[in-house]
Amino acid sequence: MKHLFNELRTIYVIDFLRFRSRLFLFLFNVFPDLYAFRVIKNILLKLAGVKIHALQTYIRNNLYFDNSSSLIFGNGIFINRNVYFEGMGKVLVGNSVQIGPNVSFFTTNHKCHEKDETMNIIVGDNVWIGGGCIILPGTKIGSNVSIAAGSIVKGEIDGGILWAGSPAIKKR
Question: 53 an active-site residue?
Fold first, then answer.
């Protein structure tokens, strides 16, 4: 009986945290998408569990995530519309990062007949990610990198270079 009670308590805590996260994400996305309201919107994300600097970050509407506690954003970042963070792995975004519209960050690999594999994504400082990019699990993007629009990124990305393509390769 004690084991059952512990299981139910764990499920309740997880569901409450997920509900809190979804509620504040909903309020964030419903709030007007104006630069003047960015601090209020960032506080809503903080209440959802995202680690974010309220004064120095600008995130546009239609942000989606599965696990708010796994998102860590640096100073001075800009995230455009329709950006999606999928999975339970951590996504660490450095300082002065710009993320274009319709970018997806995937932290989970689904394995046939096995447990899902979760891997973290790390984005360095001064990174620009163009619109429509897909960042796959386990990706580490170095500092001062530009990733062209529509690229699919996997693995270790060196700093100070332009990457483009599917899969992304060095362009210069």
Answer: no
Q: Which one from 3, 53, 110, 113 is the annotated catalytic residue? A: 110
DSSP state of 82: S
3-state secondary structure of 54: coil
pLDDT tens digits along 46-75: 999 999 988 889 999 999 998 888 999 999
**d(C-alpha 79, C-alpha 103), whole Å:** 9
- Count of H-run helices and E-run strands, the chain: 2, 19
- Backbone dihedral region for residue 52 (phi beyond 0: left; psi -120 to 50: alpha; all else: beta): beta
Are β-strands 168-170 and 152-153 bridged in parallel, bridged antiparallel, or unpaired? unpaired
Supply angle C-alpha 111, 113, 115, rounded to 5: 55
- What pTM does this model have? 0.87
